[in-house]
Amino acid sequence: MTPAIALRGAGLAYGSRVLWRGLDLEVRAGEFLAVLGANGTGKSSLLRVLLGLQRLTEGTVEIEGRAPRRGDLVGYVPQRLEVSPLTPLRARDVVRLGVDGHRWGFGRARGAVRARVEDALRAVGAEPYADVPLRLLSGGERQRVRVAQALASDPRILLCDEPLLSLDPGSQATVAGLIDERRRARDTAVVFVTHEIEPILGLADRVLYLAGGRFRIGAPDDVLTSPVLSDLYGTPVEVVRAGDHIAVVGAPPLRAEGAA
Ligand SMILES: Nc1ncnc2c1ncn2[C@@H]1O[C@H](COP(=O)(O)OP(=O)(O)OP(=O)(O)O)[C@@H](O)[C@H]1O
Question: Where does the signal peptide begin and end (predicted)?
Fold first, then answer.
């Protein structure tokens, strides 16, 4: 079966600075891949490659067997929804923007569009505030709306770039749970970039951990260990686990230039 995402011998550098190279990774439909690592290790750049916004400097990338391109195969959830204090947009309007006009048409298919929007709002539990102006919603409510927008086109692949940032722990768990529910219900492949490990620890099938030009891929329990991360960073790093809590202690800041 064609993987949802296939990277082969993939590398990305900005000038002489190598973010990562030799990345061989297949993500299958319905798989949840968490992408972890320090600031500046190239996590967002990886998403840009998958969105077709950034060219690899070596190797190849395919989305369902083809070069990345614009369209409704891929949904995207950014860090946060920036909202102008002047915008009249309501949650419902934002979700409507996520429904592909070409696929659903204008005029003739208005009923279908409306149903799509309602489904997406319901999926994230945003119906109670669907008609409230966005600027009046809390951070967690806005992020649910943003997830609804990304889900509205029923993408085969969902790319999430730190969607939990600046949410409280309860909202983090809710937003991560919504994305997890969708991938289970529709076999959506999920690539989830996050600094918050705990909310996705029980959800991720695999982890891609980036550190200063090097990386490890594997099941969370295999990658998030003191020996593996110490080896990856090249210095002693402690992974402390207590119940559902986990902390990576002693990871050094990013080196000035990359290259493993
Ligand atoms: N177009 C570009 N040209 C040159 N350098 C870039 C470009 N885009 C990103 N960078 C640099 O590449 C590095 C990786 O950026 P990226 O945003 O992918 O990292 P990240 O792992 O997502 O970081 P963070 O966790 O801080 O969001 C950063 O140091 C950034 O400044």
Answer: none
